[in-house]
Design goal:
Helix content is 26%, strand content 20%. The chain is of the alpha+beta class. The strands form seven sheets. A six-stranded antiparallel sheet has the order 3-13-10-15-8-7. The protein has a two-stranded parallel ribbon with strand order 1-6. Strand 17 and strand 18 form a beta hairpin. Helix 2 runs antiparallel to helix 3 and helix 6 packs across helix 7. Bound molecules: 2-oxoglutaric acid (AKG).
Length: 324
């Protein structure tokens, strides 16, 4: 376990952070059952919020499972969003896992049974499937998932620069609040209408410092509002793969921002990585949704490496040190 030292003071990505876009009139989000209004709102703003999409009890039990099975596992390696690598937890000085876990569907079922099941149950809820089907005009396939506990302060980005549907811009992100998100916890922020507005010189490696600086400058100085909707336990936010988003910095470290995210493409579409060479075709079915697996086991060496990483994490840790 490492602790987070020498952090810089939090800086908001823009001076004024709104809870609702100025251009969208009085605060109101159409419900997925108002099919045309829901689609029109989403297509225009590039995101939408659905209140009470997931039962609070299911959210709480998934968080409890995280605290019982995953957080205490200080030896285990988990795939991380920020680095794309398998790493141990970094725990903040207030006890939260700093970097989100990627791809719950690839986690070891025997080691983390309840967290994996409940997390994937949340992300495949009937309400989510319904909203996704309304927006796609067909069911969705889930290609990527994450769980957030603390805040990595996610840089402003478009998901489509990393992973997308074969038809660029078609993928949809889903962020489910697993608890009431405190205003100081580092809320999810979004730039409504950014999906149809280019950022100067945004091409290139989305993991590079230059990309992150350009995106941050656009959020800070660009023409669009920066919106961080207030989200209560069970609320969900959906956005297009081209809508710029990230997380605000945490201003009170006592608060977590527990949340599950998924990325869906239309079932009739393939998905594509823009930062990896190989797009897995292996999948499992969860609550009627096809969920893509990413654990790379294409050779005997990779299978051995994966087995050592999950079953003998102390040995994997030593091997990493030796290789370095
Ligand atoms: O909540 C966050 O920090 C960012 C989530 C995100 O970028 C995503 O799910 O695509």
């Amino acid at each position: 376990m490492e602790s987070v030292l020498n952090e810089r003071p939090p800086v908001a990505p823009r001076e004024e952070i709104l809870c609702f876009p100025r251009s969208a009139g009085p605060e109101y989000y159409p419900h997925p059952e108002q099919i045309e209004a829901f689609k029109t709102w989403f297509d225009r703003e590039g995101y939408i919020v659905v209140r009470k999409a997931v039962r609070p009890g299911l959210c709480s039990s998934a968080v409890q499972a995280f605290q019982a099975e995953v957080l205490p596992d200080r030896l285990g390696f988990f795939e991380r969003h920020a680095s794309g690598k398998y790493e141990r937890h970094v725990v903040t000085d207030t006890g939260f896992m700093k970097y989100p876990i990627m791809n719950l569907q690839d986690m070891h079922t025997k080691k983390y049974p309840h967290f994996k099941k409940r997390g994937l149950d949340i992300l495949t809820q009937a309400t989510i499937q319904r909203a996704i089907s309304v927006l796609f005009g067909e069911p969705g396939r889930m290609v990527h998932t994450m769980y957030f506990d603390g805040n990595q302060t996610t840089w402003a980005h478009r998901d489509g620069h990393y992973i997308d549907s074969q038809q660029a811009g078609k993928m949809i992100g889903v962020w489910v609040a697993a608890e009431d998100i405190h205003p100081e916890a580092g809320r999810f922020f979004i730039l409504p209408r950014s999906h149809s507005m280019p950022v100067p010189d945004e091409q290139g490696d989305p993991n590079s410092a230059v990309y992150k600086e350009r995106m941050a400058a656009f959020v800070h100085d660009g023409p669009l509002d920066c919106v961080a909707p207030i989200l209560k336990q069970g609320d969900m936010l959906l956005w297009t793969s081209m809508t710029i988003h990230g997380s605000l910095p945490t201003t009170d470290k006592r608060f977590s921002r527990r949340s599950f995210t998924a990325h869906y493409v239309p079932q009739s579409h393939q998905f594509q990585w823009n930062v990896r060479t190989h797009a897995s075709k292996r999948s499992v079915n969860i609550n009627g949704v096809e969920v893509i697996l990413h654990g790379d086991d294409g050779s005997w060496f990779k299978r051995l490496r994966n087995a050592v990483r999950s079953d003998w994490p102390w040995l994997y840790g030593w091997a990493q040190i030796l290789v370095r």
